[in-house]
Backbone:
């Protein structure tokens, strides 16, 4: 079941209503599942095709942590020592992008997460007023993080699943690259 990735620990964060739980269950069941706001967390073992042939897939334990303001202090203990982070952003909610940016930077810059590979999902790209990936990149000020945090921005739609597998495949590549770099530094 993925060998190297059998114990992969990935944490999904983001503001409330960004679509984290919809992403989780789209990846788990490969279909849309109607969800309710997360109070606490959801956790699932998810099998992903990964880049290339399906036989090269991987599995991970994916934690979806609630995004309401009162739950955000939980992000730190859940993200500690994660192999990868997924940060989901609502591409339509331009009014909350500053808040999303502040929380994203806080997570990426915490000492426990320094250098942890990150996938930023620009969700809800199917909606009419969705900001495109470059506008999301600029508003989240991702260039300020990229020097210390390997990251990939992926436009996606959690309802249809468009972009999710591709994004997770890119996260897998970032995690592998980090592991290889760490192994070579130990030698």
Residues:
């Amino acid at each position: 079941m993925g060998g190297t990735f059998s114990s992969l620990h990935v944490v999904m964060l983001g503001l409330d209503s960004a679509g984290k739980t919809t992403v989780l269950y789209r990846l788990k069941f490969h279909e849309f599942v109607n969800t309710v706001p997360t109070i606490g967390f959801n956790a699932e073992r998810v099998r992903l095709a990964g880049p290339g042939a399906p036989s090269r897939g991987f599995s991970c334990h994916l934690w979806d942590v609630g995004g309401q303001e009162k739950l955000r202090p939980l992000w730190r203990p859940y993200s500690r020592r994660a192999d990868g982070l997924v940060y989901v952003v609502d591409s339509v909610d331009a009014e909350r992008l500053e808040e999303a940016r502040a929380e994203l930077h806080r997570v990426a810059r915490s000492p426990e997460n320094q250098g942890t590979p990150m996938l930023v999902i620009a969700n809800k790209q199917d909606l009419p007023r969705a900001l495109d990936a470059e506008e999301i990149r600029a508003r989240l000020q991702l260039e300020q993080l990229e020097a210390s945090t390997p990251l990939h921005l992926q436009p996606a739609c959690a309802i249809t699943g468009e972009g999710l597998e591709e994004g997770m495949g890119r996260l897998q590549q970032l995690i592998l690259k980090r592991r290889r770099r760490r192994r070579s530094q130990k030698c």
Notes: The longest strand covers residues 41-48. Strands lie at 9-13, 41-48, 58-65, 84-90, 118-123, 151-155.
